[in-house]
Amino acid sequence: MRGKNAFNHLYIFYSFIFLLNVVHVFWSHPVLYSIIGMLGVVMVLINFPRADRVFKILGVILLAAGTFFFFSSEASVGEIPAFFAGNIGLLFLISMLPWMNSVVKAGRYNKLLQSLLGGNVKGMGSFYVRSEVTMVSLAAFLNLSSATISQELLKHQLEKVKTKVKNSFIAMSTLRGYSLALLWSPLEILLATSIFITGANYLVVLPWMIMIALLGFALDASIGKILFRKHQVEGHTGAKKDLGKNKKKLTQFISALVMFLVVVVFLANVVQFDFLFAVTIAIFPFAFMWAVLMKRKRSFIQIGWPTWKKHTNHLNNFIVLLLALSFLTETLNASPYLEYLQDPIVALEGSPLFIMLFIQAAFLGMTLLGVHPLATMGIFGGVSELLMGALPEVTLTILLASCAIATVPSAPYGLIVTITSVGLRMNPYEIVLKNLPYSLLLGFLGVMVSLLTLMIY
Question: 351 — phi, psi (to 5°)?
Fold first, then answer.
């Protein structure tokens, strides 16, 4: 009983580590970073027995691979704690997500959003298109928070549908819609990194990224409509009427989300905070002020506080996965095996199409092996001069960004897949298999559009 009570107060320990991570943002000291990493190791030890079986297996595999890369590198044992600190910021972000969901519930906007998903639905085929559009709209404003909000709404809307069909529907429509929003968002870190590597102008790249997003949506919406056409879903007949009565509330909701986007842009571009950190620290103050303006402060606290504590106390799967992944990524970067990944680029010099297809395959292959697309982007960044000698900067930007973002719905250890896996209680590899054809298709669209720009630039 005493041990169980201790687990109910883990949020205090985690909050202390998150606070140290905030301090490190403003005071970047290697000793502090190592302390954060040591506490990260403690987090893994506490949560490994509590993690689901799938995440235990993934954690062991990642730690074993990381250990192999560590012994092949020249890194010292004293550096090991720091290798576990890299993804603490991601855990902090995941911990804060319930506050945005809570203000949406406190303002009863979840019912408003549900009206976007309901109303005169002829079948799950048509509902798939509507769900994907809603997800794209939400992801443009809420980023990762959009996944939890949309998935909760869809679980409620599809509660009478068979679990297997329901989970497939949610895993496909939300993750694919999420990736389509990332393609053109100036706040997306993968797009921003590709622009940083090449030095291309965002406004020149933007129309091409929107083209890829529109083509991807048109193809996937058509496929989803066919795949789910035989299944039925109950619609709310009065949804359109209710939505008509709530135009003012819908306007308020969109205005609030735009304002949140403005706050994040200000913190990221003016204050020069890292994007993920900007989103993380903006969530609670913004949600609180939103609740105050709606005169829903009490409801917000009543819903948010217990939800946040429970959510933070049960970060066990995320902790095992993300901190083990941090160890793997850091040891790989320190290993001489990293150099072998750059050799094929040199061999393909002078063949633009083969370079493009190799880049697409590399992003997808590395992602399936557990390497974050940002790490793969860093590898290509190391040979950026060579790549820009073969491809114009606009073409290379579109190629890197689209191929990287295409892997998001199929990344077994990615944040959005992990959130979906935990929320739906699905094996992450099951989600990967459902979205892998889409990732191949979207990446190929990126290659085709890149080829088109090669003729223009």
Answer: -125, 85
User: How many distinct helices (H) and strands (E) make up the chain?
Assistant: 25, 0
**Whole-number Å distance between alpha carbons of 227 and 225:** 6
Any alpha helices (H) in 369-414, and if so which ranges?
Answer: 373-382, 384-390, 393-406
Longest CA–CA span in the chain (Å) reads 69
With a CB cutoff of 8 Å and minimum separation 6, the contacts of 106 are: 291, 294, 296, 299, 300, 303, 304
Tens digit of each residue's pLDDT (9 = 90 or more) over 101-157? 788 888 877 666 666 665 556 678 888 988 888 888 777 666 676 777 788 888 888
Q: Of the candidates 83, 61, 73, which has an alpha carbon nearest to the alpha carbon of residue 337?
A: 73
d(CA 256, CA 248): 12
DSSP 402: H
Q: What span, in angstroms and rounded, lies between the C-alpha atoms of 227 and 221?
A: 10
Whether 355 and 342 have beta carbons less than 8 Å apart is answered as no
Q: How far is CA 300 from the centre of its chain?
A: 25
CA 329 to CA 342: how far, in whole Å?
Answer: 16
Q: Do 266 and 281 touch, CB atoms closer than 8 A?
A: no
Output the CA–CA distances (angstroms, integers) from residue 27 to 23, 32, 33, 38, 281, in the order listed.
6, 9, 10, 18, 16
Burial of 159 from C-beta contacts in 10 A (0-12 / 13-18 / 19+): exposed
22 or 245, which is more confident: 22
Coil, helix or strand at residue 103? helix
The domain ranges of the chain are 108-303
Total Cβ atoms within 10 A of residue 299: 17
Q: Is residue 260 within a helix (H) or strand (E), and if so which, with residue range?
A: helix 247-265
